[in-house]
Structures are given as C-alpha cells and as structure tokens.
Amino acid sequence: MIHDHDDFLEETFADMDLTGADLSRKVFEACHFEHCTLSGTSLKNTTFESCTFASSSLMMADVTRATFDGVRFEECKLAGINFSAINDFCINLAFQGSKLISCTFTGLDLRKTAFSGCLIEESTFRECNLKDSDFSGVNFKATLFSASTLSSADFRGASGFAINPCSNTLKGARFDHANALQLLHPFGITLR
To answer: Which residue positions does the secretion signal occupy (predicted)?
Structure first.
C-alpha cells in the first residue's frame, strides 16, 4: 500500500517494517506512524506535514532534503539521523520521551523545539538556533553544544549536559539551581 502511492492524507500506518524501503518524494499529510521501523529507509525529498510518529524507530534513515513541518516523535528511537541534511526552509519538530542517539543538528533554526523527557546521547548541536527550546527533563550523555543560541531555553530537570557558556549563547536560559553548577565544568571550577 505505501509503495503504491505517492500522496497520503490522514492515513495510519501501524506495525510496519519499512527497513531499507525507498519512500523518496512521497508526501504524508496528517498521517500517524505507530510501532513502525524505518531502518536504512530512504526519505529523500519526502514531505511530512502535521504527522506523528509514536513508538517507532528511525535508524540510519536518509533524510536528505526531507521536510518535517509539524512533526512529533513520541517515545521513538532515532539513531544516526543527520537532521542537518533536511530541508531547512520549514522545520517544525517536537520530540517527547524519545531516544536520540548519534544524531546531528548543524546550522538549523530549531527555535521553540521541544525535546522534553528525551534521552539525547552522543549527538551534536552545532551553530543551531535553539532559542526558547524545551530541554526539560532531558538526560544528556556525551552530547555537544557548539556555537549555538540557547537563549531562554528550558533545561530544568535536565541532567548530564555539558554546555560551555563561552561558546554558546545562554542569556535567559533556565536551569535548576543544582544543575546550573554543571555550567562551571568547562572552567575547571569545583564547588563543595
């Protein structure tokens, strides 16, 4: 069914294994993906508009020039995704309770993006605008923020982050009192 058409409106795709599938140039509008596996799937030039992925996995999927406008990932696993390759004209993403492992975000405007309650591991945010983004409750592991704008971002309840205040903009960012001490780590300062 998914291979036979190019445009989908308000469709639900459940329990589908799309490993290695070529879904290039397809358009999904207001679609719901639940318990789907997209491993090594080609999503080149594919458009996702107002779509939800729930309890699904996207691993090493090719998202070159894909459009993600109003897309939510709920309790998903995303591994090895180079979000820097997506169509940066219109980005509107939200991640909730998901695992982002070895994902790359470079040069993207991700203002007001929600990452709440996620595990973000071995990922990179470089030269991104993350102003007003929600990182509340995120568990970071070996994740790098470099030359990014984190103004007014919410890091309350987050743990494991390593953010150098000298190489990122943090004006107005919100941290828990105890977690804010992690910001001193790049300076070699220890408080007891």
So the answer is: none
